[in-house]
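User: Reviewer 2 asked us to show a designed sequence for the structure in our supplementary figure. I'm pasting the structure tokens here. Could you produce the per-position amino acids so we can include them in the response letter?
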């Protein structure tokens, strides 16, 4: 393979062709987007990027990429067993040439099958490809059957297709082909899909690793691997190939303690494909998860200016506008998305967020349901539907929506937090503790998670555990610092530890918001009493003087203490 940027260009062009031939539209779109963002041939940027081939891999500074066409068998199907490395390579080449010949012989049947697949006549496409043995035709036939099963399950209102006899048949056929060494990288990806649907997640994860090793630029395989690996993405990720930087950057995008690692992977990506839409979207999502809403908004604005008809991640953009209560921009975003395509799940989520901000929760829930119907794997739709059903006091529906979200992506803390909230509303604290625990494990530096867990321990009469969680919240992000300080102070006071309670109340006064008047008044009254016990009347008067401004309804209590203080001084 020739060195230089042209090697990478050829790799992405091949990915576009191969993924498109198999109906993997999202992988095709991803590869084409990165391809079109490469520096043009002959430019200084292209010439400065040197790629050296070594032992079947390409080196781009610290970025490696594996060739795909020549090595589609390696790491995918079971290669023919030989005693000599040269003989093994020869056997792989022979197998690949045989595959190419089969694909060429079956190209007319493939054209018919692909045309039927494109108009979503999946059963008919599979029937027309029966008897074909080339890797493209076999993949498209079995993938058509898989999508048909998925569609039938969705129409029946089922969240999984694990009980489908078609999936069992697909898995059995693919396993037999794999054992015979007749699966390429795409076939192994489809095997991983079928194994996941059958509940065999460990086997599916191993198959996914083999799939991305065999064909690196199948982005759908990387996304499937991310869902199967969970928080162990870095452990299972192959060490070769440049796409691993995209995979690891996306895996770390919501991880608070991985800023350096995330930035390193993003720098490697940007060196290759610049600020493509995918790269800009990762930056925007990173700012969003770090609650840097102004920076995230700027990234989304730049992304919209570059690609005004792009709808990907518009639901995330609408979440930012919802949290910042920017109704005007949210309305404009909803109008723009509806003008582009009102039947996209992202559009429905944006419109649902708009109605939710207007407190029209029935309408909002309706749009989120529509998004979930349009794409049953749309994580945002299920999470946001759960939020709206909580507002409507439909706890059973909310719990179901959140569970559907955890089935799609167990790494999303919002779904686990929502389940905790749901069971807390149902007065089932032990279940709520379990789900809040999952959320706090995913977001260990988010004080909101620890406060929710601590509140639940407090209601369950477990003060020691509640204190430990509130203390974690104080050392995490600042959003819930005032809430944590107030509750921690109350628990310490109840336990008779007045010095620690006083310390927490001082923290409360330092972090209290304008809507925490009652907590501020309680803090001032306690601190006044504490200072009086320490024979410090001057400090006590200062705290008591703040009570009337914070909470007028408690001013009489402060006045009584001031009068008692004045009489004792006389």
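Assistant: Here is a per-position design you can include in the supplement:
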């Amino acid at each position: 393979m020739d060195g230089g940027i042209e090697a990478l260009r050829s790799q992405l062009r091949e990915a576009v062709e191969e993924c498109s031939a198999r109906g993997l539209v999202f992988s095709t779109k991803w590869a084409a987007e990165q391809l079109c963002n490469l520096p043009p041939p002959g430019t200084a940027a292209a010439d400065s990027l040197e790629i050296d081939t070594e032992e079947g891999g390409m080196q781009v500074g610290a970025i490696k990429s594996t060739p795909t066409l020549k090595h589609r068998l390696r790491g995918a199907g079971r290669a023919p067993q030989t005693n000599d490395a040269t003989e093994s390579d020869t056997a792989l080449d022979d197998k690949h040439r045989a595959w190419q010949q089969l694909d060429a012989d079956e190209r007319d049947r493939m054209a018919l099958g692909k045309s039927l697949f494109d108009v979503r006549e999946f059963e008919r496409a599979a029937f027309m490809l029966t008897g074909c043995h080339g890797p493209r035709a076999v993949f498209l036939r079995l993938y058509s059957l898989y999508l048909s099963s998925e569609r039938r399950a969705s129409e029946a209102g089922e969240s999984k297709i694990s009980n489908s006899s078609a999936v069992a048949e697909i898995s059995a056929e693919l396993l037999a082909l794999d054992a015979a060494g007749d699966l390429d990288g795409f076939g192994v990806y489809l095997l991983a899909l079928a194994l996941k649907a059958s509940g065999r997640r460990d086997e599916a994860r191993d198959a996914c690793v083999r799939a991305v090793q065999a064909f690196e630029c199948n982005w759908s395989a990387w996304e499937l691997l991310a869902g199967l690996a969970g928080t162990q993405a870095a452990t299972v990720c192959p060490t070769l190939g440049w796409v691993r930087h995209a995979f690891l950057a996306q895996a770390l995008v919501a991880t608070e303690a991985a800023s350096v690692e995330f930035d390193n992977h993003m720098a490697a990506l940007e060196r290759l494909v610049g600020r493509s839409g995918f790269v800009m979207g990762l930056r925007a999502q990173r700012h969003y998860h770090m609650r840097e809403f102004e920076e995230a908004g700027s990234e989304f604005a730049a992304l919209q200016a570059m690609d005004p008809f792009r709808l990907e991640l518009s639901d995330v953009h609408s979440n930012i506008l919802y949290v910042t209560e920017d109704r005007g921009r949210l309305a404009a975003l909803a109008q723009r998305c509806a003008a582009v395509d009102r039947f996209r799940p992202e559009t429905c989520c944006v419109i649902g967020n708009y109605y939710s901000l207007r407190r029209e929760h029935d309408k909002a829930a309706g749009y989120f349901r529509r998004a979930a119907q349009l794409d049953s794997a749309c994580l945002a739709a299920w999470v946001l539907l759960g939020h709206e059903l909580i507002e409507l006091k439909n706890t059973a529906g909310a719990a179901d929506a959140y569970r559907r979200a955890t089935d799609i992506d167990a790494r999303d803390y919002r779904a686990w937090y929502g389940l905790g909230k749901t069971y807390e509303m149902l007065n089932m604290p032990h279940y709520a503790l379990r789900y809040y625990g999952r959320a706090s494990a995913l977001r260990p530096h988010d004080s909101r998670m620890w406060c929710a867990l601590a509140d639940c321990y407090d209601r369950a009469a477990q003060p020691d555990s509640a204190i430990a969680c509130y203390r974690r919240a104080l050392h995490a992000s600042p959003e819930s610092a005032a809430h944590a300080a107030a509750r921690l102070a109350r628990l310490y006071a109840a336990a008779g530890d007045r010095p620690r309670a006083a310390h927490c109340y001082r923290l409360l006064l330092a972090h209290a918001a304008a809507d925490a008047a009652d907590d501020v008044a309680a803090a001032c009254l306690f601190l006044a009493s504490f200072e009086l016990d320490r024979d410090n009347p001057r400090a006590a008067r200062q705290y008591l003087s703040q009570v009337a401004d914070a909470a007028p309804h408690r001013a009489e209590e402060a006045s009584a203490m001031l009068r008692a203080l004045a009489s004792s001084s006389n």
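For the response letter, you might also mention the following. The two ends are 96 Å apart (CA to CA). The beta strands are 52-54, 57-60, 63-65.
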